[in-house]
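Review form for a predicted model. The reviewer records the input and the model, then writes brief findings.
Reviewer: anonymous (R2)
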Amino acid sequence: GMENVEQTVASIMDTLIRNTDANDLIIVTRRVSSICQGPFSSEFKAELRNKGVIKHLVSRARDLDNSSEYTNSAIATLRESTFRALAETIYSSRINADEVVRLGMLTILGQGLNRRKTDDNNVEVLLCVTNNIIGMSASAHELLSEYGLLESLVRFSGGREETVKDSARWVLPEGHVRDIATAGLANLSNNPAMRAALLRAGAVEVLARELARGPYA
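Model under review:
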């Protein structure tokens, strides 16, 4: 019941605030993902927002993604579990999607995707957060270009090579990453207000190629 939701979220927030140990934080962020997929998920998502957990996760994501400790595998795993927790809290929750946008998530995603190579294993989870924002927050659509996110979606969908500023970074993205980025562009193409921006970003070639490729190619 609701009482259990409140207790669970209070204990999650307590762990997030008190803990600096990466492994404890990995466990608690994975717990956030899992409760967002379980029963009472909409109540949990509202409580995570109301009690400041989402705000805390956004600021943790910002710090982690700017962390120089890339070689530390615990940091890499924590980064992945933190972004995944954010993706789950936004999924099917318009209010939470608008909240993370308000808290500066587009800056974090824009910078994170822009500096990553196409074969970076953290790309997938950054794209998942981006796609969930696209799916849930129509008001975020027109902001995407400003943060370089449209261009990143084109790049990770295996779009035109010339959209990559530094061609030494160019490796064709793996299928799963390509599919997530392409799904984001396809979702945006349903919004008539986004057509000009999608044309400018080179998304049309990507979407045409995907249509031609079909589901079984």
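Findings: Residues 73-90 form the longest helix (18 residues).
Further findings: Residues 160-164 have pLDDT under 50 and may be disordered.
Recommendation: see findings above.
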